[in-house]
């Protein structure tokens, strides 16, 4: 898709962080944007600010973990602006797991992480792709993964990393199946970076359902800078969400499946992992 003007984009997790910046870059490119988020107050405030700036944005409350809610979002998007041309399955949560071992994480921790980060992607695909195929116009499905898990895994975030590994696999399969259908749709996988992204994802704990809560939160860190320290990451530089959104827009324009910012460090990690697989050598902590 070369001309964005008058087309429609839907972004989940759109009220803050990378999602909000995605909404802004799409709207500035001339698109009508449906900003979807579970948090009504943040959604209304973000959408109002963009409309005041003259951008075509409408906020729609949606829960990516609920298939019915996502189906309703798809119908509402069509009612608002007609055919959907870009879907960004971007909503995600971070669990304060960096100071715990994998065997200390609870079933509720795993259930919440997977319900948003994995089933949120699956529910978005199920709700939107059939109608995008039906209208037959060129379009794009962008799934937000992470270099952590999506490419290589940090040892301090087993839930988050494994959910993002699943997102990579799901998106690769989606890409192949769209080709099998001969569709005008293209799948993309977005890896925000190349450094840890300066978002408020750790504050997503406030939206954790009561039935999946274990009471008092574990982990004192509240910012991404704190998480970097808790995880032992040596690279203290942060990437801003605005940079990620611009990378995404450019990746769509360039028809890139792998929307992955260049990084010598990350490229080395991927090469080392690939070589370990091919040589059947045991991965070592010192390789990270």
UniProtKB/TrEMBL annotation:
Protein name from the UniProt record: SDR family NAD(P)-dependent oxidoreductase
Spans traversing the lipid bilayer: none
Coiled coil start-end: none
InterPro entries in UniProt: NAD(P)-bd_dom_sf, SDR_fam
Protein family according to the UniProt entry: Belongs to the short-chain dehydrogenases/reductases (SDR) family.
Keywords: Oxidoreductase
GO molecular function annotation: oxidoreductase activity
Span list, region Disordered: 269-288
Gene3D superfamilies per the UniProt record, alphabetical: NAD(P)-binding Rossmann-like Domain
Tagged with keyword Oxidoreductase: yes
Provenance organism: Sediminihaliea albiluteola
């Amino acid at each position: 898709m070369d001309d964005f003007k008058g087309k429609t984009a839907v972004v989940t997790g759109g009220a803050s962080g990378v999602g909000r910046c995605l909404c802004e870059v799409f709207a500035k490119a001339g698109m009508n944007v449906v900003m979807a988020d579970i948090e009504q107050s943040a959604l209304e405030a973000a959408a109002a600010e963009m409309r005041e700036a003259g951008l075509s944005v409408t906020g729609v409350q949606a829960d990516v973990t609920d298939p019915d809610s996502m189906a309703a979002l798809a119908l509402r998007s069509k009612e608002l602006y007609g055919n959907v041309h870009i879907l960004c399955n971007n909503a995600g949560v971070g669990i304060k797991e960096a100071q715990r071992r994998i065997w200390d994480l609870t079933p509720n921790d795993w259930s919440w992480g997977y319900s948003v980060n994995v089933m949120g992607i699956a529910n978005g695909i199920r709700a939107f792709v059939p109608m995008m195929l039906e209208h037959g116009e060129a379009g794009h499905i962008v799934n937000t993964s992470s270099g952590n898990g999506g490419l290589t895994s940090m040892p301090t975030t087993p839930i988050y990393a494994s959910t993002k590994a699943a997102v990579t696999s799901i998106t690769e399969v989606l890409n192949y199946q769209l080709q099998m259908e001969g569709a005008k749709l293209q799948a993309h996988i977005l890896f925000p970076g190349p450094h840890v992204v300066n978002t408020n994802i750790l504050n997503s704990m406030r939206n954790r359902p009561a039935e999946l809560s274990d009471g008092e939160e574990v982990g004192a860190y509240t910012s991404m800078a704190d998480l970097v320290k808790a995880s032992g990451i040596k690279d203290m530089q942060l990437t801003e969400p605005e940079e990620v959104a611009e990378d995404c827009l450019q990746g769509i324009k360039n028809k890139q499946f792998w929307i992955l910012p260049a990084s010598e460090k990350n490229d080395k990690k991927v090469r080392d992992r690939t070589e370990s697989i091919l040589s059947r050598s045991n991965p070592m902590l010192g390789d990270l």
